[in-house]
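ZP: hey, is the S-adenosyl-L-homocysteine complex queued? I don't see it on the tracker
AM: it wasn't, my bad. submitting now with these inputs:
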Amino acid sequence: MDLNLLRSTLEELGQPRFRFDQVWKWTAEGAQGYHEMSNLPASLRAQLEERVPFSTLTEVTRAEASDGTVKLLLNTKDGRPIETVLMRYKDGRRSICVSSQSGCPLTCTFCATGAMKFGRNLTAWEILDQALHLRRIDELDHCVFMGMGEPMMNLDNVLEVCRRLPDVGITHRRTGISTVGWVPGIDKLTESDVPVRLAWSLHSAEDALRSDIMPVNDRYSLQDVKAACDRFYEKRRKMIFVEYIMLGGVNDSVAQAKQLADLLEPWKYKINLIPYNPTDSVYDGSERGAMEAFRQTLEDEGFNATIRLIRGRDIDAACGQLAAKAAA
Ligand code: SAH
């Protein structure tokens, strides 16, 4: 829902200010439409129905995996595809993964979104509506900006959404922005008033290899990004999550685990090893044994290192996969 449009429409209709908060509360708490908002006059509900679309997005497909993961393919008004995912865990956690751009201008070689044409930045309302569509399916408590796109290139809109997420049930502590290492965005987040978590998609502790995997490394090198992450840590005193995608025979040797350990400090960085979700790229995922040896090496060096649970593989839940298929 475009909350600016809601605000101006309520003003034009001469409604008292509290109407905005009423509508937002219902929406943030998972109402399916204006018709459920029983404390609004029926005539107002009808006018809003006409003038303020309940969502800026339309649902194109909904895929539900056997593990409870739900993935939505949504379209913007101008027909741009966006993916968003709800992951439900046995311990009760309800975590969402939202997109910040349609497509992505960065061309990480392992990523299905990187292979798509870049569309545009999403508006704050298009980002928020992803969370709201999922909130109509279940209660939510965690959010990561790990869907399509680079959130640090659209940070003002992402932060606007972060400010609204607590009303949807997701606190700042349980919100994370994931970045390839877009330094100006990291610095802006450090200086912002929104105390969310930072995740860095690192993938290789060696500049030459990292540039091969992620061309953006030519622009912001490992040391540049590391320095920006350290500034974030100095200011926020919150551990930074490192994501490290495990590509078989490429970045998954024990020697490379040691390089990673040399780059980072175990009290500042928590490492999440990500099993590769195969796409049409040249890579294969690492063997289970290689992942475990990599993890053990990091642990021996004093790091908290985990291997991410695989979710939703039967529904093409890897970044960009569903949108890429829909476009084909
Ligand atoms: N641009 C941001 C956020 C989007 S990608 C970033 O790069 O952090 C979110 C995460 O999904 C990244 O860590 C990325 O490396 C990972 N990812 C992309 N494609 C993947 C795949 N096929 N399998 C597993 N993880 C993938």
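AM: back. The first strand starts at residue 58 and ends at 64.
ZP: great, adding it to the tracker
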